[in-house]
Structures are given as structure tokens and as C-alpha cells.
Amino acid sequence: MDHEGFIIRPPSEADSILLQVTLGCSHNRCAFCGAYRGKPFRVKEQARVMADIDWAAKKLPRHSRLFLMDGDALVLPMRRLEPILTAIREKLPRVRRVGSYASARSLQTKTDAELARLKELGLDIIYLGLESGDEDVLARMNKGVTVAEQLHQAARARAAGLKLNVTVLLGLAGPEGSEQHAQATGAALSQMDPEQAAALSLMLVPGTPLHDDWEAGRFTQCTAPELLAELGMLVEHTHLSRGLFLCNHGSNHLPFRARFPKDKAAVLQSIEAALAGERELKPEWQRRL
């Protein structure tokens, strides 16, 4: 496959065909994110994308999942997305699930009919970075969208039949804003009611504005116990009708995968045990983005 630069994908897309249709992130201004720093956003040439689909059809014909890269493939106009999804369906008939990162900003560029058309063409799941349900936190992190806008666009995606994986970021408000961040984020997740919710833990990346704030003493990182306590509050305030809650990212101290509401009480007990020192945490040197 013709991949430019490093590859970033969700943990659940580890076995997927990774098809790069854009480079970088169309926003790329979040204070905490260093994923695409130094990688200017651009749309990949359609001929190269189609050549990659042909290559995958020859080399990876039995794969059942495909993920559209980079940071926000849905920012592509329909005139680019439709031929790509059509080619995937025709040349990779075993692919049953196509996923992509998305944002409220990119979803806003699509009408309800266009979202339904993407679902019809095979797009099945989108990964949406909520990060926080606290409007002040999103503003400080220069997310570029409000919580209200994200809730609205998530509802539109669900109405079109798309599955949602919503990512939130522990520690983003620092110790002083931890409780409000956890409670507001749990409330937002509950309103979205996604098929999957995923919690990551903040790891400061050199060269990002948030790392600069930390170096200058303007931001305080949460300790491991503070992150665990925040996770407990988040879980307590998250009410999913029947969703997976994932904490299996490499940045987390206490990895788990749970089905809510069935496993919620057990997760809270596990977090309490970890806070009491009765469960071993992942050491700092093993944590990674």
C-alpha cells in the first residue's frame, strides 16, 4: 500500500486494510494533539487511492475490514468518497465493514441524504473524538467545535445508520477540573449513546501547545491515581443502553473492555481495587500513544 508518513489507526482496526485517502488532519489545531504536526493536510490523488484498492484486491482479498486514513477522511467531498467506496465494494467483496475517523466539522459538510448514501455504499462505523463534555475544556484545547455541535452531528450520523465509536481523553482538564470534566463527559456520552466509547489517557507530546503550557507551569498533569479516580467518575456518569466501553489504549494504566450496563458495576469495583493498591497498574514506561 502507498502509505505516506506514519500510520495512526484505532486499536480495533488492527487487522483492517488501511487505505490512505487523505494526509494529515483538516483541523490540526488541538492543543493536546501531536499526531499530525508537521504533516500538512492534503487530499491524496484519486488515482493512487484506486491503485491501492487494486493492490489490496490482489494481496489482501480475504480481509473483512477496511479503514480510511488519515485523520478525517469524511472531509472529502461526495464526488471523491462515492467512487472510493464503490470500488471497495466491487473489488473487495469480502469487506463487510468500512471505518473512518470523523469530526463534527466534517459531518457538517454532509447532508442527511449524503450520510445515508455513505452508509448504503458500505461505510459502517465512524470514530469521533469528543475528548470532553465540558465546553470550557474544549475551548481551551482549541477543539474547534462545541459539545452541542458534536452531540448534534453524532445524532445525525446515528440517524443515517452509522455506528459510533466516541473517544474521550482522561486528564484533559488537569486535577483542578477533573470532576467537572468527568461528569460532563459522562453526560455527553450518555446522550450520544454510541455502540462503542473509548477512554484514552492524556500523554503530553513535545511541540504541542499543551506541552508548552505544562513546561511553563500553566497546566498540571494528573497523576496515575488522579486519572484512575477520574475514570471512575466517568464510568459512574456514563449510561449506555448497550455499548462497549473500551479502556484498552496503550496510554491507560488500567486496561479493560466492558459491556455496559452489564459490566459497569464490575468495572467500578476494579477501579476501586486499583485505587486501594489491590490491583497492579501498567508502569509508566509501558504507556504509549
Secondary-structure map:
Blueprint: E1 17-20, E2 22-23, E3 42-43, H1 46-59, E4 65-69, H2 78-91, E5 97-102, H3 104-107, H4 112-120, E6 123-131, H5 135-140, H6 147-159, E7 163-170, H7 178-192, E8 196-201, H8 209-215, H9 224-236, E9 243-246, E10 257-260, H10 264-275
Parallel strand pairs: 1-4, 4-5, 5-6, 6-7, 7-8, 8-9
Antiparallel strand pairs: 2-3, 9-10
Helix pairs in contact: 1-2, 7-9, 9-10
GO molecular function: catalytic activity; iron-sulfur cluster binding; metal ion binding
Cofactor: [4Fe-4S] cluster
Protein name: Radical SAM protein
What is the global morphology?
A: globular
Structural class, please?
alpha/beta
Query: Could you give a short account of the major beta sheet?
Result: 8 strands, mixed
Indicate the radius of gyration in whole angstroms. 19 Å
Helices and strands, in N-to-C order? EEEHEHEHHEHHEHEHHEEH
CATH architectural category:
Alpha-Beta Barrel
Q: Estimate percent helicity.
A: 25-40%
Count every beta strand, where a strand is a DSSP E run of 2 or more residues: 10
User: What's the CATH topology name?
Assistant: TIM Barrel
Residues in β-strands, percent: 15-25%
Strand order of the largest sheet: 1-4-5-6-7-8-9-10
CATH class descriptor name = Alpha Beta
Instruction: State the CATH superfamily name.
Output: Aldolase class I
Question: What does this entry show, briefly?
Answer:
It is built from ten helices and ten strands.
